[in-house]
């Protein structure tokens, strides 16, 4: 297939390289010359503009920072410029409203589009082991799966357009909540006189078990190996978790859902990022307790 890939940053760089490895012809564009040069080294064909990169392609994949940029790229340079019949896949994590709006504009112009945000960080993007949560029609999903497969461990059809973004925001809101709860429980155990390692042994096998405790223990030297054991370097940055929580709060607002714990989690991450912790792994909330 001939695929245009727009946005070759931390995530998109590795994803585009995996499409090349799978034998696809990949036209690349990024505002950053450095990112574009890296894509060229990985076998992509670099282009000077989005509208040029999408000429003659079967699919357009975008991996961009936010909804505003996604909307401007599609409305200015993709819709009406890519050939009729091309499939659009936005893999960025963006707000639900924009995801639905851009897909609607694409559909009005006769294109099929899916939202396909990912779970998994930079290592999974490089390794081709991302999980894609896809929103779109059955027909669009069937085509999208073929494009996403070389970048994926798993590709899930979540539902209609926007369902991928809903899955992503709900998952990450839940992740933030159980991470903070896990930090609090580990700290309470320690303060109240129980060895936190003993607490881990018990709770990871009891009803308190969850991914943050069992697989990503946020206390240094306790339980599973995680960024906590490396001064919270690497892993999933608190600033990115805050971005996802803001998207979840926007989604809750537009859909009228009540999310008191999600709101509080957002406030906790906001304070942590404002205090300078944005670059640390999101488990570093443990250090604030
Ligand atoms: P990044 O900032 O490293 O990459 C974004 C790239 O987009 C940059 O190279 C930038 O130059 C480019 N860009 C910005 N505006 C552009 C435009 N108008 N045209 C073309 N290129 C443009 O970000 P990232 O970490 O790769 O994240 C990308 C998306 O993936 C985000 O939506 C993020 O929330 C999501 N995501 C990231 C992670 C992660 O661990 N980094 C995990 C899951 C999902």
Description:
The chain is α/β, with parallel strands linked by helices. The protein has two domains: 2-161, 3-Layer(aba) Sandwich (Rossmann fold), CATH 3.40.50.720; 166-288, N-(1-d-carboxylethyl)-l-norvaline Dehydrogenase, domain 2, CATH 1.10.1040. Helices cover 49% and strands 14% of the residues. It contains twelve helices and nine strands. The chain has helices at residues 12-21, 33-41, 50-53, 67-78, 96-108, 122-127, 138-148, 163-191, 196-203, 211-214, 238-255, 260-277; strands at 2-6, 25-29, 45-46, 59-62, 87-90, 112-115, 118-119, 130-135, 152-159. Strand 2, helix 2 and strand 3 form a beta-alpha-beta unit. The chain is elongated, with a radius of gyration of 20 Å. The termini are far apart. The structure holds nicotinamide-adenine-dinucleotide (NAD). The site of nicotinamide-adenine-dinucleotide (NAD) has 24 residues, from helix 4 and helix 11.
Question: Keywords for this structure?
Answer:
289 residues, alpha/beta, Rossmann fold, N-(1-d-carboxylethyl)-l-norvaline Dehydrogenase, domain 2, 2 domains, 6-stranded parallel β-sheet, 3-stranded mixed β-sheet, 12 helices, 49% helix, 14% strand, elongated, binds nicotinamide-adenine-dinucleotide, branched-chain amino acid catabolism, NAD(P)-bd_dom_sf, 6-PGluconate_DH-like_C_sf
